[in-house]
Specification:
The protein has seven helices and eleven strands. It has 252 residues and is α/β, with parallel strands linked by helices. Helix 1 (15-24) packs across helix 4 (135-151) and helix 2 packs parallel to helix 3.
Length: 252
């Protein structure tokens, strides 16, 4: 029987995580180690300057007062009785597309799994506003988990999966989009007179790559993007190699 770790960045009581836990029943032993409260946009940040408190809240379930990456680290190195065969992060309330993968705590948790050479899946429902439901995404996660457990993933690779709310049944392997949003700062003043900016984003969809994650979602299909840990740009290793001589001659 497989051993599966479930985590997220929306908090251990989030509806999406609970849908995922239910969907994984029958695939193996399930453990949940997740933040005690919402830690969205925490990427792979770690808690280093204070202790990370945790509490066992149910059989094979632990709430962590830390980030999603903290949760995976505590799970692998202190809380779980054995190493999991698969880590699934989600189901996130909102999409993680394009440049959002660099900020997403959902993706960050799956990245932490990949760092430890454990297959990782980040699951999100790509939707904004009200009317969220997770049943179809959870069912898809079950089928995908079965496939990953049977066939594995390449070392250092995770799957970033986004499911449109109104899924048309299509599934695509996609590229991560380039930046298609612009940052918007909404300025204001709180009741005590302190100034603030509220960070928002605005989509600017022009010339969208048809093989991208955003294109799949806009067409109603599930987007599955393989992300890798090694961010080395191989071409630049050769293209910029002549800089070494110039720099050495300047500083030696």
């Amino acid at each position: 029987m497989a051993y599966i770790l479930i985590t997220n960045d929306d908090g251990i009581h989030a509806e999406g995580l609970r849908a995922l836990v239910s969907a994984m029943e029958g695939l193996g032993t399930i453990s949940v180690v997740a933040p005690s409260h919402e830690r969205s946009a925490s990427a792979q940040s770690l808690t280093l300057r204070q202790p990370i408190f945790w509490e066992k809240i149910a059989e094979r379930e632990w709430a962590v007062e830390g980030t999603p990456a903290d949760s995976v680290i505590l799970a692998l190195n202190g809380l779980l009785p054995e190493r999991p065969d698969l880590v699934i992060s989600g189901i996130n309330r909102g999409g993680n597309l394009g440049e959002n993968v660099f900020y997403s705590g959902t993706v960050g948790a799956a990245m932490e799994a990949a760092i430890n050479r454990i297959p990782g899946i980040a699951m999100s429902v790509a939707h904004k506003g009200a009317g969220f439901h997770y049943e179809r995404a959870a069912k898809f996660a079950h089928e995908l988990a079965q496939l990953v457990l049977a066939e594995g993933l390449p070392p250092g690779v995770l799957l970033n999966v986004n499911v449109p709310l109104n899924w048309n049944g299509g599934v695509r392997f996609t590229r991560q989009s380039q930046k298609v949003t612009r940052n918007v700062l909404q300025e204001g003043t709180d009741p005590r007179g302190r100034s603030f900016f509220w960070l928002l984003e605005q989509e600017q969809i022009e010339g969208l790559d048809p093989e991208s994650d955003y294109a799949a979602i806009f067409d109603g299909a599930i987007s599955m993007t393989p992300l890798q840990l090694d961010r080395t740009h191989e071409t630049s290793l050769n293209h910029l190699s002549h800089w070494t001589h110039k720099l050495e001659s300047k500083v030696s």
